[in-house]
Amino acid sequence: MFHQLLLGACVTFASLMGAAVLWWYLKEIIEWMEPWLRRPPHLIKPVLVVMMVIVSAMAMLALGVWLWAFVLERSAAFSSLEEAVYFSLVAYTTLGLGDVVVPEQFRILGGMIGANGFLMFGLLTATLTDSLRYVRGMQSD
Question: Which class does domain 2-140 fall in?
Answer without folding.
Answer: mainly alpha
